[in-house]
Amino acid sequence: xxxEIINKKINRVLLINPPYTFYTYVNIDRNAGTMQHPIISLxxxxxxxxxxxxxxxxxxxxxxxxxxxxxxxxxxxxxxxxLIGITSTTPMFPSALKISEKIKQKNKEITVVLGGVHSSxxxxxxIANEFVDIxxxxxxxFFLKDFIESNNRLELKGAYFKNEIDKIVFNxxxxxxxxxxxxxxxxxxxxxxxxxxxxxxIEKKSPGGLLETSRGCPFLCNxxxxxxxxxxxxxxxxNRVINEFRYMKDIGFKEIHxxxxxxxxxxxxxKEICKELIKIKNTMNWTLLNGIRVDRVDKELFxxxxxxxxxxxxxxxxxxxEKVLEKINKNISLKQVEEAVKLANNAGLETFxxxxxxxxGETEDSMKKTIDFACQLPLTIAKFDIxxxxxxxxxxLELEKKNLIKIKKWE
Length: 411
Fold this sequence. Notes:
Order of helices and strands: HEHHEHEHEHHEHEEEEEHEHEHEHHEHEH
Largest sheet: 7 strands, mixed
Number of strands: 15
């Protein structure tokens, strides 16, 4: 980074979500399952910046004609951002780099920051790119705020920087937040909510919005990447959760999808959230579409979920073969799956089962068992995916050690 980029005053920030949904689903016959929501990470970062600088969010994922280059240039010409932050998962990384290149071609003085799970997992790869100035790792809600307000930006933790001679600077990771109530309210108003729609498989009414009540997951499934939120389960207070329900309704969302990796990790807390929603006579429909564990539920929880206006519960079942479940460190049994789905159905909830083919230890016979098991369960919806060995997962490391990762073209 040039000295003027490191030290310059930052008045305007543009946050970008690269196109993903249409690239993934547009040319296949599974587009009924397309899920489009405003990105919560960018909304949280923007919420933290509200008293620091002007901020806008540009979500390319709701631009259907793929012609985002002209729209990007319009923002660069008219908004004139001093800094642009781009979020990226691993499959989105090539697209994020392409956007970074377009930015630098237009104006080299704009500071380009990449964050998200790929930056957290492969920071050396990200910062090595000539069009990227900063690679942020881990929780990044307050990083841009701290960066903009700091007098010693290259001394901050939580990111890889390039100094004036393009030498990489890294001062270590930031500690994970211990009090999630300190997180800013997401700046949902920066999105045009009318652009977000999903099929009935995903939600009853659009737009649906994402809500975090907790972060982190203490379980050890080997296909899961925990480089951003970690293995320690942390949570918001019940009052904060209820306030966000109210806030999201007021902002214009028609229903809420809980984004947690483990909403019922503390089953008693999950019940208390439901009881409080019942107490305030909540009228907002919501779902547990991200899934909950079948070993962290009981009859009372499902009944409370139903009364609190949750209408759909998803379960990460993954396989119908006990040996595969053991191999992937899922630590659940098929009997627990059957009991959880039955109890949820008895409570009047829709049930959504997630399954994967190609997990470690998979055989043709185990895949047939998964299909048979899914068919015998009384699920409302069953969704089958092909397991992907993402970098940062134990699955990836095991395959890499066996020289079975043959290509690293992330697209």
